[in-house]
Amino acid sequence: MNHSPAPGFGFILLLAMTVALGPLALDTYLPAFPAMADTLGVDSHILSLSISIYVFALSLGQLIGGPLSDRLGRGPVLLSGLAVFTLASLAIWQTDDFKLLLLLRALQAFGGGWAAVCVPALVRDRIRGREAAKLFSMIGLIVVAAPAFAPSLGSLLLELGGWPSIFLFLGVYGAALLVALRSTLFRGPRTPVTAPATSALRRYAAVLATRPALRFIGLQAMAFSVMMLFITHSSFIYQHHFGVGPKLFAILFGANIVVMTAMMLLNRIALNRFSPHRILRISITLQAAGIAALSLVLWLAPTLWLFVPAMMITVGAMGAISPNNQASCMEYFEENGGTAAALMGALQFSVAGGVSALSSMLPETVEAVVAGMAICSAVCLLLVWTPFRDSLPAEQPL
């Protein structure tokens, strides 16, 4: 199959901004919880239901949008998703009813899932192998900044125009992306549409039948679970166990994002010499080494300033794991790329969310959290180091 030339920076930026819809819509309104609870007449704890609904609807949107993008083409599905996201955001801007807000949050997430799931498939449609991994790294660099700055942006918007202004911003953001991507996606050659009569179930069956790719789908879910366990318990670990204040907690939390960004930059350089799969093995092993270091610190010298560097390595390794894993997985899907991306994205969120929920049943200790991370990491090591019985694609030499 002939592939288009590597996309330019402007198109890459638009793709990254599309993927960033999820964390932006999830994190920007967190500082506004007290104000929203007062306006809507509910408790802040009840308002957190809007987060759970959002994550579930985001996964559902990906599961439905992926096969549709294989059937109808990336452009129509991506733009439809952006339109739904935009309209739902603007409707939330105008609502003061809690039940309606929950419904609109589900629609917002559903549209965001449709849009985001098209991005890995768009990359796969255009380039492959090392170049695809480099592109995923560049997209990741921009996406990582979203959760880092989203709460600060939300606080600023809250001060300027109250909590509704946050959803007005999200609506304007979605509309701007819709306009920019519409002119970009339909300016060049269209993405080919494959087998219009093929049902979503058949497409998922075809993806699940591609056995070598399944380990990468599982790997994404388990590696993401390692990071999700840290995010879920980060406040307990740093503020309760180690006794740091809110300002220092923000700095320590942000340090992980700095390392993740550095790993993405190093990954782009390493891809000039090594295959995505080889770097993936190294980065998974690095994450496991970070968890081993965490265990040793807790056992021998449980001090904050030894614990933090080990955690930075553990979480920061995701900067190299995610782009190379996505590139390795998508190599197997000349067709049904959108369906494969949907399955990977939905499984990532659902498994990590389930692991995070189950972790609440663990003893409330840092040692228990690190043990949970170690179990997830052990599964990743097994998946990435077990010999392949099926051959890798030509551009994935070990």
UniProtKB/TrEMBL annotation:
<feature type="transmembrane region" description="Helical">
    <location>
        <begin position="135"/>
        <end position="157"/>
    </location>
</feature>
<feature type="transmembrane region" description="Helical">
    <location>
        <begin position="77"/>
        <end position="94"/>
    </location>
</feature>
<keyword id="KW-0997">Cell inner membrane</keyword>
<keyword id="KW-1003">Cell membrane</keyword>
<keyword id="KW-1133">Transmembrane helix</keyword>
<feature type="transmembrane region" description="Helical">
    <location>
        <begin position="341"/>
        <end position="362"/>
    </location>
</feature>
<keyword id="KW-0812">Transmembrane</keyword>
<dbReference type="InterPro" id="IPR036259">
    <property type="entry name" value="MFS_trans_sf"/>
</dbReference>
<feature type="transmembrane region" description="Helical">
    <location>
        <begin position="248"/>
        <end position="267"/>
    </location>
</feature>
<feature type="transmembrane region" description="Helical">
    <location>
        <begin position="163"/>
        <end position="181"/>
    </location>
</feature>
<dbReference type="InterPro" id="IPR020846">
    <property type="entry name" value="MFS_dom"/>
</dbReference>
<feature type="transmembrane region" description="Helical">
    <location>
        <begin position="46"/>
        <end position="65"/>
    </location>
</feature>
<keyword id="KW-0813">Transport</keyword>
<dbReference type="Pfam" id="PF07690">
    <property type="entry name" value="MFS_1"/>
</dbReference>
<dbReference type="InterPro" id="IPR011701">
    <property type="entry name" value="MFS"/>
</dbReference>
<feature type="transmembrane region" description="Helical">
    <location>
        <begin position="213"/>
        <end position="236"/>
    </location>
</feature>
<comment type="similarity">
    <text>Belongs to the major facilitator superfamily. Bcr/CmlA family.</text>
</comment>
<protein>
    <recommendedName>
        <fullName>Bcr/CflA family efflux transporter</fullName>
    </recommendedName>
</protein>
<feature type="transmembrane region" description="Helical">
    <location>
        <begin position="7"/>
        <end position="26"/>
    </location>
</feature>
<feature type="domain" description="Major facilitator superfamily (MFS) profile">
    <location>
        <begin position="11"/>
        <end position="389"/>
    </location>
</feature>
<dbReference type="InterPro" id="IPR004812">
    <property type="entry name" value="Efflux_drug-R_Bcr/CmlA"/>
</dbReference>
<feature type="transmembrane region" description="Helical">
    <location>
        <begin position="368"/>
        <end position="388"/>
    </location>
</feature>
<keyword id="KW-0472">Membrane</keyword>
<feature type="transmembrane region" description="Helical">
    <location>
        <begin position="100"/>
        <end position="123"/>
    </location>
</feature>
